[in-house]
Amino acid sequence: MFGIFHDAGYKGLYGGIGSEEIKKRKRIDSKENLMDRMNATELAANQFRITQTRAKLVKAGNDVTFLARGEHLNKIKKNGLIDS
């Protein structure tokens, strides 16, 4: 679930593309951790979506995969980081 959870967040921040496509576009080796190669702004945006989504899931008492994937996108859209 961890990989699906984060990939959904990347898709929200990067216009629908997942971590592997982001790595290709940025010419990052597939074995490298994407977050190790992000600038400060990207790291801050990703930390924001991770902490806000985690808090909402814990509050709701739900941790099912489809909800986690949807919450990343909803939080990112709500905060104006991507268009709805």
Count of strand segments: 0
Backbone structural class = mainly alpha
Count of structural domains: 1
Name the beta content range.
under 5%
Radius of gyration: 13 Å
Number of helix segments?
4
Q: Residue ranges: pLDDT <50 for 5 or more in a row?
A: none
Report on the biggest sheet: none
Global shape: elongated
- The chain-level mean pLDDT equals 77
State the share of residues found in helices, binned by percent.
55-70%
- End-to-end separation: 25 Å
| Secondary-structure element string | HHHH
Verbal overview:
With 84 residues, the chain is mostly helical. It has one domain (2-78). It is built from four helices and no strands. The protein has helices at 2-13, 19-26, 40-60, 65-78. Helix 1 packs across helix 3 (40-60), helix 1 packs parallel to helix 4 (65-78) and helix 3 packs across helix 4. The longest helix is centred in the middle third of the chain and has 21 residues, at 40-60. It starts with a helix and ends in a 6-residue tail after the last helix. The mean pLDDT is 77.
Brief descriptors of the model:
single chain; 84 residues; 65% helix; elongated
Give a quick precis of the structure.
This protein is an all-alpha fold. The protein has 4 helices and no strands.
Secondary structure: elements and pairs:
Elements: H1 2-13, H2 19-26, H3 40-60, H4 65-78
